[in-house]
Amino acid sequence: MPSAASPALELPVGDRLVRISNPERVYFPALGLTKLDLAQYYLSVGDGIVNALRERPCMMHRFPKGLDGEKVHQKRLPAEPPIGLRR
Q1: pLDDT > 60? residue 2
Q2: Confidence class of residue 4 from pLDDT cuts 50, 70 and 90?
Q3: Cα separation of 45 and 79, whole Å?
Q4: What is the 3-state secondary structure (H, E, C) of the chain?
C-alpha cells in the first residue's frame, strides 16, 4: 500500500515563498533523493541556471509518480502561471 503524502512546505526563493507539495516523495530511488532534495539543489545552482536559460525557450519533463513512472512533456504554461513568470 502506498504511503501517505507528506505535508507540503514552503521554501523562501528570493522575495517569494514557493510551495513544495509532497517534499518527501522519492524522485531518485537509486540515491534515495527526494523532491525536497531536488528543490534544494536547484536553489543552490539557481543563479547559474537562470543566467544560462534566460530568454531561451524551455520544455519541462515531469515525472508525477517519480522516475519509475510515466514521463510528461510540458511545453505550455499552466492556465494560472506562477507570479512573475513571463511568456
Answers
A1: no
A2: low
A3: 28
A4: CCCCCCCCEEEEECCEEEEECCCCCEEECCCCEEHHHHHHHHHHHHHHHHHHHCCCCCCEEECCCCCCCCCEEECCCCCCCCCCCCC
36 φ/ψ angles, rounded to the nearest 5 degrees: -65, -40
CA quadruple 50, 75, 35, 43: dihedral, nearest 10:
10
Pairing of strands 33-34, 26-28: antiparallel
Report d(CA 8, CA 57) in Å as an integer: 29
